[in-house]
């Protein structure tokens, strides 16, 4: 389903942008786009490292048009939720448990005031945190994990990559940037090539960065990188994955150069209620912001999955 550019470079008139206070008082920027009654249900969509919800307005519009209430929030330390590093362009966090604490509190409040069924979606880091939250007790009616960060790409492998990150992180301030530019080191690919084959959608992100420069995020800190290795390893080894009964769709780009598709497929094989949609070299990391052939196929698969597992009231 195609939508005009207004859904890519302008906020919907009916959407609400506000602030939600985490239990410790930290202010997180939130997005809510209520559905017309009777709502089909509610989707909470969480983006990846450095993401902002503006990047996904086009997909939000497709779901909203289908009757879904759509919500999102910027993770602590990025977007409009306030930064955790003295250098505001460095994506820093002390521990991923901070993300989980924010998410669990937001989910509980959000679930109580939005129409069901309640669907959890996450892209990249958001997919990792969504699955980790599920392993730790959050129970949506259905979940969709898009290019989930269940393992990090490392030229020396995850085990040695984690050891190297911890060694270098101890040499100086771990809140400093882990690298200078691009999405990851040791690659000659441009940032655009790592994210999407669709130049127009890539330019949408640059447009938002120009319009709202305060949302711009650069490389992660060494501490973020260390915690990302730790959290993904711990989740892959978590025995609770085999007990999760939440219907879960994993959408995996097998040519992904930012997160490990192999790790995602291995985790999917352990989830008792998982389905997998795979893309080949036609898709880079940002599947929902890919060229129409990829994006439309992904959205259609999500629609079918939700119709089967989170049907909601008849409209």
UniProtKB/TrEMBL annotation:
The lineage of its organism: Bacteria, Pseudomonadati, Pseudomonadota, Alphaproteobacteria, Sphingomonadales. This is Alpha/beta hydrolase. SUPFAM superfamilies: alpha/beta-Hydrolases. It holds the Pfam family Hydrolase_4. Keywords: Hydrolase. It comes from the Bacteria. Residues 38-292 form the Serine aminopeptidase S33 domain. GO terms for molecular function: hydrolase activity.
């Amino acid at each position: 389903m195609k939508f005009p550019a207004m859904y890519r470079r302008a906020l919907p008139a009916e959407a609400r942008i506000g602030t939600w206070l985490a239990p410790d008082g930290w202010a997180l920027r939130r997005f809510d786009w209520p559905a017309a009654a009777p709502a089909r249900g509610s989707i909470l969509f969480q983006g990846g490292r450095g993401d902002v919800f503006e990047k996904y307005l086009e997909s939000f519009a497709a779901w909203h048009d289908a009757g879904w209430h759509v919500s999102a929030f910027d993770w602590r330390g990025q977007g409009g939720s306030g930064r955790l590093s003295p250098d505001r362009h460095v994506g820093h966090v002390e521990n991923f448990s901070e993300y989980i604490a924010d998410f669990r509190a937001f989910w509980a409040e959000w679930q109580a005031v939005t129409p069901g069924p309640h669907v959890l979606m996450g892209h990249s880091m958001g997919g990792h945190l969504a699955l980790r939250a599920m392993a730790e007790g959050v129970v949506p009616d259905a979940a969709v994990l898009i290019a989930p960060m269940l393992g990090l790409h490392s030229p020396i492998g995850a085990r040695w990559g984690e050891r190297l990150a911890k060694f270098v992180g101890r040499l100086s301030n771990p809140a400093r940037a882990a690298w200078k530019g691009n999405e990851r080191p040791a690659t000659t690919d441009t940032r655009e090539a790592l994210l999407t084959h669709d130049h127009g959608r890539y330019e949408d992100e640059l447009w938002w960065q120009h319009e709202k420069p305060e949302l711009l995020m650069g490389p992660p800190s060494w501490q973020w990188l260390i915690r990302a290795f730790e959290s993904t390893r711990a989740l892959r080894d978590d025995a609770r994955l085999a007990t999760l009964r939440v219907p879960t769709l994993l959408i995996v780009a097998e040519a992904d150069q930012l997160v490990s598709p192999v790790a995602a497929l291995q985790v999917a094989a352990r989830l008792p209620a998982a389905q997998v949609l795979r893309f080949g070299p036609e898709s880079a990391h940002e599947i929902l912001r890919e060229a129409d052939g990829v994006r439309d196929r992904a959205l259609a698969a999500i629609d079918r999955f939700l119709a089967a597992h989170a049907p909601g009231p008849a409209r």
